[in-house]
Amino acid sequence: MSIGGQLFGIPVLKVQDVLGSQTITRVPLAPVEVAGSLNLRGRIVTAVDVRLRLGLPKRENDKAAMSVVVEHEGELYSLLVDSVGEVLSLETRDYQRNPPTLNPRLREFSDGIYRLNDSLLVVLSVSSLLNFGNRADAA
Questions:
Q1: 3-class SS string, 17-29
Q2: CATH number (domain holding residue 20)
Q3: Does some domain include residue 137?
Q4: pLDDT-based confidence at 123, cuts 50/70/90?
Q5: Is 132 a domain residue?
Q6: Which residues belong to the signal peptide in this entry (predicted)?
């Protein structure tokens, strides 16, 4: 998946579904990164704007977000991203810990990286992305 031109990945076993643009209802007093909630086959799912969570600017209004639905601690969450690509099969030996030069904000939400032929894939930590408990402004 891509967010702000950067390639990201989530372990495939964490992904429950991938959806196109969805109707999202804003949740009052929620952190700014929480875009709202959506209805997924009768279940209410919290939608988190990963762009904002990573400290990137808001998505342009004419650009529709894709939803990557993940399960975390028994609940479903929709991670809003710019685009979703293919499923990659990567070798464990190619996995690397976060380099010290990685942006500190990315490092906060990353489990590690893979260096691909022409780009860097940052492996997102779903639990870190969804941990709002240590923030003073979390609702």
A1: EEECCCCCECCCC
A2: 2.40.50.180
A3: no
A4: very high
A5: no
A6: none
pLDDT 10s digits, 81-100: 999 988 888 888 889 999 89
Mean pLDDT of 99-123: 90
Number of domains in the chain: 1
Pairing verdict, β 15-19 and 75-81: unpaired
SS3 track for 100-139: CCCCHHHHHCEEEEEECCCCEEEEECHHHHCCCCCCCCCC
Inter-residue contact 78 to 67 (CB < 8 Å): yes
Q: Considering the entire predicted model, what is its pTM?
A: 0.86
- pLDDT at site 40: 92
Please tell me the predicted confidence (pLDDT) of residue 63.
Answer: 77
The residues, any chain, with a CB within 8 Å of residue 117's CB and separated by 6 or more, are none
Residue 27 CB partners (closer than 8 Å, separation 6+)? 34, 36, 37, 46
Q: Does some domain include residue 133? A: no
